[in-house]
Description:
With 495 residues, the protein is an alpha/beta fold. The protein is built from 15 helices and 23 strands. It starts with 7 loop residues before the first strand and ends in a 12-residue tail after the last strand.
Amino acid sequence: xxxxxxxxxxxxxxxxxxxxxxxxxxxxxxxxxxxxxxxxxxxxxxxxxxxxxxxxxxxxxxxxxxxxxxxxxxxxxxxxxxxxxxxxxxxxxxxxxxxxxxxxxxxxxxxxxxxxxxxxxxxxxxxxxxxxxxxxxxxxxxxxxxxxxxxxxxxxxxxxxxxxxxxxxxxxxxxxxxxxxxxxxxxxxxxxxxxxxxxxxxxxxxxxxxxxxxxxxxxxxxxxxxxxxxxxxxxxxxxxxxxxxxxxxxxxxxxxxxxxxxxxxxxxxxxxxxxxxxxxxxxxxxxxxxxxxxxxxxxxxxxxxxxxxxxxxxxxxxxxxxxxxxxxxxxxxxxxxxxxxxxxxxxxxxxxxxxxxxxxxxxxxxxxxxxxxxxxxxxxxxxxxxxxxxxxxxxxxxxxxxxxxxxxxxxxxxxxxxxxxxxxxxxxxxxxxxxxxxxxxxxxxxxxxxxxxxxxxxxxxxxxxxxxxxxxxxxxxxxxxxxxxxxxxxxxxxx
Length: 495
Ligand code: NDP
């Protein structure tokens, strides 16, 4: 792949593959720093052209008059196309962002399932006839919003892109997709597969480029009717400000600092495995990572000892090796950020119980690897427990009572997810429903189903993705009154 990096690769604008006019966008393999490919990224003009091509495609009578089951057929073909190439796409993504193969394979399968799910939803969602209060028939129908922008981060490519593109196309919209500049490969592959599946030109454009140029141009474009964004909270706020001026709806899936709570009556094996997966899979680079662990005081020493012992057994290494649990972090700046938080933890009085360093050895010399790290001795008010690190760092803290843990778990600006491990289902309900989190996992963690809505509360987001009605967030309601009165309206009669 290194040789391919020399020539600039095209991007996908309005059904055409051509070089963008913006800054080059390299895809770098975090295992060894080699360049997979370099794309000629999009500038604001390219984004404008993609939006214009989307508008034209939506106005085209073929798309406008395509019946739902026919549109669903195209979505299914995209899902089939993704499934048919699962292995090669998974390998490509592994080189793009360093996740172990079992994870990248899972993301491709998830993306394929997402297209199949929204194809089924599109065929079965109904408009409504509403109760009339006069001599008319009233109904609510749903119209596509228009051209929408989808902006995605680097941590779960293809799955997060499918989560936006599939419902938006199902809704009848055209989509301009701006993936993270760090991970352009899979988004462009999605463009290729959608084109091969027969999606009419212009309905999907993929415009890798920098956030400050391509992303900002997409958000500000007057003909873009909605932005669906996944990424950091500060970027989300900046997008929301522009959207407020345009009076444009947004869906914002943002950051997190999710609590995991282990009660003394939890099954220890289940809880330890769940905690490890919840924080260290994806190298901790996950919005829903369970990065704050609260353990009931009576089992705290034994549980933490076990947890540390098990963490030391996790394999850091080549994402192609099936024994690997953690691959490299996405980039050098991301690793530097993680390291600075571990240093901060030390200065805040934290004790590093394991990890807290780069793994040693030749195999790790050129990659951005970092050991899974557990820290205790911090207060929940410390910066390390309040700010999103987005890396393999777990802070563990004891708690005294239900009331204590509810207060600490909620003491964060975020509200994305929460995990509870207990043998008492009534307590799980009591505590879980008292915690402000968009997703609650009880005796499990980081499991997902496309049919279940996903949302964050507080600084973790605005709006909902996934679920059957996910399509509706790309549509607007239109109320229709059919007059049934045989008599003219008497208002204009002369007395
Ligand atoms: P960023 O917010 O930095 O970037 C996300 C996307 O926004 C990228 O495509 C980026 O472009 C783009 N962008 C940056 N600035 C602008 C702008 N001014 N206008 C428009 N677009 C812009 O997040 P990261 O990529 O670093 O991803 C990590 C974050 O994502 C974490 O906070 C994580 O919690 C969150 N996340 C949330 C999820 C959720 O569902 N709640 C799921 C996954 C991640 P570019 O990168 O090319 O500069």
